Amino acid sequence: MLAAVLSGLLAAPMGCSSSDTPPPPQPASAAAASQTAAARPAPQAGADESVKLKKEQLEALVAPIALYPDPLLAQCLVASTYPLDVIAAQQWLGQNSSLKGDALVKAAEQQKWDPSVQGLVVIPDALKRLSEDIKWTTDLGDAFLAQENDVMDAVQSLRAKARDGGKLQTTEQQKVETKTVESQTVIEIQPASTEVVYVPTYSPSVIWGPMYYPYPPLYYPPYYGGAWLGFGVGIAIGIGISGGWGWGCGWHGGGNTININNNNNFVNHYNKSNNINRSGNSNWQHNAQQRGGAPYKDRATANKYGGGARGDSAQARQSQASQRQAKGQKSGTSSASRGGTSSSHVGNRNVSPGSSGRSSSAFSGSSSGSFARSSSSRGASSMGGMRGGGGGRRR
C-alpha cells in the first residue's frame, strides 16, 4: 500500500517552492505525504542511463541536513534510501507515543525497518524532518545512491560556505573542526556531549542565501538576528547508542564513505535477527531488499540494485517485488545453514577490505559504548561513550 502511494507520488508532476515558511507539515502518513510533498522535476534519462545531478542541485538537496552532526548526518543519508521505512516509522511513533526510554528502544528494535530508521525513532526531530516531505527524502536517497561521493562533497561545500560566512562554529551543543584529510580540507561536526544529541534547526536561505535551484519545501524556522542555528531540547540516547553510534562519515579525498559500527545496539540487533555475524566496522552498502517496493529514480539505478524504476508498469513492479522476496528467502536460508557467518549481502554491511588505508572505519568498534570517531589516518576526532539515561528521553 505504501509503495503504491509513493510510486504515484514520485510519478506525479508537481511544482516547486523555495519559500522559507511553507504551510506547517501535516501528520505523517502515506496520504498526508502525497498531499504535502512538492516535487522537483527529475532529469530525463534513457532506459539504461542515469543522469547525474549538478553540484548546485545537490547542494540545494542536502542543505536541510548539511549542518547536522556527522553521525546524525550519516544516519539520515542512509535512512533516506529506505523511504517506506521512514513513513512507517513516523506513523508507528505517533501510534506509540506512550513508549519512552529503554522501552521505546526495545520496541523499535522489533520493527522490520533498516536499523538507520529504527535508530531515528529515538531522535524524533530528525525522523520528522525526513518524513515531512517524502518526495524530498526519496530524491535525497536516490541522489545518495547514484552519487554518494558527490553528495558528501556537496555537504562539505555548504559547510565551508557557512563557516566562511561566520555562521558555523563550535557551540555548547556541537563541536566544529576543520582538518586536512588526505590532502583535502574537511569540516567535521560532532556532538559536544557524549550523552545528549541536539538536532540543529536553521533556514538554508539565511545560512547560504538564495540558490539557483530552490531549497526543498520544508518548514524552516524564522530567523532572529544572530541566531544562525537553533537547538531544541537535547535528547538522551540511552541504550540506543550502546556500543557506539552506528553511522559515521568517512571523509577522505576522492572516496567519501558512510561507515557502519556493527557494535551499535540497533545494527547489532538487526544483524543477529538476520543471522549475520559481524562486529567492528564496515563500509555501508545499500540493501535493495529492505527498500521494499519503493522504485528507484531510473532504470540504471534499478538495475544496479535489482529493483523497480519510476515509470515501470504495475505488473513489472509486482514481478520485481516477487523476485526480491524469493531472493531474500533464499539468502536467509543460506545464511542460517552456515550458522550466521554468511558473507552474503543480507543487511549489506560488508566488512571493508583490510588492505587499504581507507578501510578503517569512523568508529572505535569497541563494546564499551564509544562514540562515533574517524580513524587517525583520516584526521578525525574521537569521542567518549554515549550512555544516557534512556532512549529518546529529552533533557
Side-by-side strand order of the widest sheet:
3-6-10
N/C terminus separation? 37 Å
Q: Helical residue percent?
A: 25-40%
So how many helices? 14
Protein structure class: alpha+beta
Poorly predicted spans: 11-47, 332-394
Rg is 20 Å
Number of domains: 1
Task: Detail the topology: elements first, then pairings.
Layout: H1 2-11, H2 30-36, H3 55-62, H4 70-79, H5 83-95, H6 101-109, H7 115-120, H8 124-132, H9 134-146, H10 148-164, E1 174-181, E2 184-191, E3 196-197, E4 200-201, H11 204-208, E5 230-231, E6 235-236, E7 247-250, E8 257-261, H12 265-273, E9 281-283, H13 299-305, H14 314-337, E10 393-394
Antiparallel strand pairs: 1-2, 3-6, 4-5, 6-10, 7-8, 8-9
What would your notes on this structure say?
The chain is of the alpha+beta class and 395 residues long. The protein has one domain (2-41, 53-394). It contains 14 helices and ten strands. A three-stranded antiparallel beta sheet has the order 3-6-10, with no helix packed on it. Helix 5 (83-95) packs across helix 8 (124-132) and helix 9 packs across helix 10 (148-164).
